[in-house]
Amino acid sequence: MVLVRACLMLVLAAAASPAAMAAQPAPTPAALALFQRDWVLMNWALKYYDADDSISLSPAESAAAADAFRTIADVDRDGRVTPEEYRAAREAILTRD
Ligand SMILES: [Ca+2]
Fold it and tell me: How far is the CA of 15 from the centre of ligand 1 (A)?
């Protein structure tokens, strides 16, 4: 059991090593990362902003969806989406769409 855990630690350490990171493609744009973090937002973005129906978001589609989400979520129009605004918008999307 201890050995298995040690092996898992090694695998995780290897996955996080700079060499492994260097093999990754270009960094994910912030807009796309927003949707990759949250399946509710991803489903919503794909439903309304996957313009070419590729079942993935291009940088432009991600940016459009992120702008739309910001408009929905930033109810006090201060230019920022607080955690509370994020949760409320997510909940609205989840129940409405
Ligand atoms: Ca706000």
Answer: 36
